[in-house]
Amino acid sequence: MPAHISIAESPDRGRHLVADQIIPPGETFTAGQSLLRCSRCRLARYSSREAQLAAWKNGHRAECSALRACAPRMPPATIRLAGRVLWKSQVHDQHHEPEGGTYEELEQLHSHWSSLPDDRKQSFAQMAALTREYMDGAGDQAPNATQHDVRKIALLIARFACNNHTICDEELRPIGTGIYPKAALANHSCTPNAVQSFRGNRIIFRTVRQIRMGEEICISYLELTGTHAERRAALLSSYHFDIALQGLPDPAASLLTASVFQGKEVKCRIRIEMHTTAPCTTDETDGLKLGLEVVGKPLDISNGVMASLAHSAASTQRVRVEESFNLDAQDLGGAGPEDDDQQGSQVHVDVWGPYWTGGDARLEQAKRVADAAASLLLSQQQAEALLAAQDPEQGLRVATQASAAGALAAEPVLGGHHVLRMRLQEVLLRCAIACGAWPAALHAARSLAATYHLLYPPIWPNLGLHKAIHAKVAMHQQLPAEALEQGRAALLCLEQVQPGSQSLREIEGLCHQAQQELGPF
């Protein structure tokens, strides 16, 4: 840990990181270790021959044998990570402390086992059993793997669940997972002062604003554009703390009426609930993310609408386990994905605020709003699926049609920065770029730029990368002035959060090209 950062502890925040001096924006500090590789299993990477020999002695000898024993099948990342951690713990040198942290430090991290529901405990136990089977494949190349009982491995995997970092590339695409005991001490904040990135398997924190001496260093565990209710639910489920404890009490929403009807824009059942106040906790940004408009003007922020799919919690958990294990549904004793589709065919829509207290006429308006919200939600998910299936042209048609229908809906309409509109525009942009539909891509990039400007901090990776994409699309449309403006804005951001990256170098070249096309000032 850098000298100007210390580990503190308090009853409400637990163990956490604190700045011992003023840290300016753009400052870099690390809490990880470098990635390695092997010529036998062709998975582990090395920076040098010395690193290869060190890795072999540090547990990869056993890992390599286990990986070759289960070839051509590949264990999921969580199981591989558990095996690697346990093998390293068996050859750990008590007099040498790895930069990323020791196994003893990992054991000090919370697993929250006692508060886990039974189905999560069962899932972790299944993971542990498979990890043990995978480790047995190392044979005599490893210390006695049976010393790790299933419960101990399950507790380790539970620690992973609420302390792991998803390793991403420069464009924020997930490429792996890692456990960094020291970096895991960075707590979450919905208004973070630092952001994590990765260079190989090395985790790097960068400050996005000046941090005062004595101030806690916090990152965001989640995407910042999510609503407060979404972030609260995800943090409570995965990390076992409630951001409502930060002074946001649960609302006492009064249900006006509830109704189930068949959607017109999309063929699905819609359950609508009308409330006098928001049925979930909200924060200051939710007025934008969940707001409504009439005659182009926002309604009071006490009014809002949100839609979600009515999947069951058990179904969602089972899908998560299947993805983690790369297993078929029958391996876990559950239903298949077709059953999930049937169970999730209903969309739940909440509308709230004083606008809706007008009797039957308001109920009919609310149904129209709910229909439009359900259409945006389902169209976004359909477009995502088409893009994943390598059919961006059809995905673009679905997203464009839904976007146009939402703009023509009867008032009130979802606000211009509503989270459902934003997410539809995000997939529309990706589809348009994938099939080279540059006018549609430029329209989506401009729309998202206005929303991101309001929702992200001025220095943030997602904002900088979007400005870079906007600049590239503008150049495809032969708009060098717009490309130069967005490119320079991207540079200001990426120089702080991704210095020396390939993305930064590409935008520097694009700005030079745009300037040449515009000529001298």
TrEMBL record:
Transmembrane as UniProt keyword: no
Q: Can you say what this protein is called? A: SET domain-containing protein
Q: Which GO terms describe its molecular function?
A: zinc ion binding
Give the highest taxon in the source lineage. Answer: Eukaryota
Q: Which Gene3D superfamilies match?
A: 1.10.220.160, 6.10.140.2220, SET domain, Tetratricopeptide repeat domain
MYND-type domain location: 37-64
User: GO CC annotations?
Assistant: nucleus
Q: Which Pfam families did the record assign?
A: SET, zf-MYND
* Secretion signal, residue range per the UniProt entry: none
Instruction: State the InterPro entries in the record.
Output: H3K4_H4K5_MeTrfase (IPR050869), SET_dom (IPR001214), SET_dom_sf (IPR046341), TPR-like_helical_dom_sf (IPR011990), Znf_MYND (IPR002893)
- Keyword set, alphabetical order: Metal-binding, Zinc, Zinc-finger
Q: Which SMART domains match?
A: SET (SM00317)
Q: Which residues form the SET domain?
A: 3-222
